[in-house]
Amino acid sequence: MVFFLCDGCNETLKKNKVDAHAAKCRECWSVSCVDCSQSFPGDEYRSHTSCISEAERYEKTIYRGARKLDDSGTGHRQQQHKAKKLTPQEAWQQTIEIAAESAPSSIKSYMDQLSGCDNVPRKEKQFRNFTVNSLRLKGPSAEKIKDEIWKHLSKVREDEKQKREEAQKKQQSSRQPKDAKKEEAEPTSISDDDKSSNDVAKEDESPSSSSMPSQKEVTKAVKRALKKAPNKSLKFKSLRKTVQETLVIKTKSDTAKKEWKKLLKQCVDANSKKLVVDGKIVSLKD
């Protein structure tokens, strides 16, 4: 939570206590943030919901942000400082403070009290229990006030979520033209050797059905593998791998893997007199 200092009498104030203090302090024409020392005249302090990190606060002019090695690996370069990501509880507390400013008169006093509380629950059931003790909302008449407070908070939270999503979309859209310019700037010419290697790679990745062995070859390989196996039995997966290694079948792409599995199953089903399938086990009859 952000704390402020009265520029008139130097009293430390919670955000929700600033208005009450300004009403009784004649010299309170502005307040300053305790963390960043920025001064806010009048009601400008309301928009100050988050602040700088402790490193920035205490290191001041010598603060250089997070560092990492440069491209050469020898020196250091300054990493662009990113805003600290709020925890869910900090974001919820910030939502409560924003909601307190726009709250209707019927719940304004309760929202001001709530913004001064710490660890306010984010779920409705726990929140209602919290208001019983913290806001002294007890009895049947208080249920209507609880409903109004929770509806107002939910609406503000949804509005803030939409604003964040819109901001992220704008950032992404602003990055896309830059990426497009980079791609255009990159050289597009490819040497003959690169073209030939790419063609070979594509052929390997997407083999046609002609690259698969015939059903007769697969059947012979299956029988040989089962003869060498203990009890002349193998799991279907082990059999598939053994035959694949024997016949040197390439299955780099997903389509090739599916085609190979289908071919092996067809061979096993077609030789039901010699090959017995029991669940996941394939056995060779004597």
Q: Which key phrases capture this entry?
A:
single chain; 286 residues; alpha+beta; four-stranded antiparallel sheet; 9 strands
Task: Give structural notes.
- With 286 residues, this protein is of the alpha+beta class.
- 52% of the residues lie in helices and 11% in strands.
- The chain contains ten helices and nine strands.
- The strands form three sheets. A four-stranded antiparallel β-sheet has the order 2-1-3-4, with no helix packed on it. It has a three-stranded antiparallel β-sheet with strand order 7-9-8.
- Strand 8 (275-278) and strand 9 form a beta hairpin.
- Helix 3 crosses helix 6.
- The chain is elongated.
- It starts with a strand and ends with a strand.
Helices and strands in order:
Elements: E1 3-6, E2 12-14, H1 18-24, E3 30-33, E4 39-41, H2 54-59, E5 67-69, E6 76-78, H3 88-101, H4 108-115, H5 124-134, H6 140-185, H7 192-205, H8 215-228, E7 233-235, H9 236-247, H10 254-270, E8 275-278, E9 281-284
Helix pairs in contact: 3-4, 3-6, 8-9, 8-10
Question: What is the helix tally?
Answer: 10
Helicity, in percent? 40-55%
Radius of gyration: 35 Å
Report the β-strand fraction as a percent range. Answer: 5-15%
Number of strands: 9
Question: What is the mean pLDDT?
Answer: 77
* pLDDT < 50 stretches: 74-79, 200-209
- Strand arrangement in the largest pleated sheet: 2-1-3-4
Envelope shape: elongated
Query: CA-to-CA gap between the ends?
Result: 80 Å
Taken in chain order, the helices and strands follow as EEHEEHEEHHHHHHEHHEE
Q: Main sheet?
A: 4 strands, antiparallel
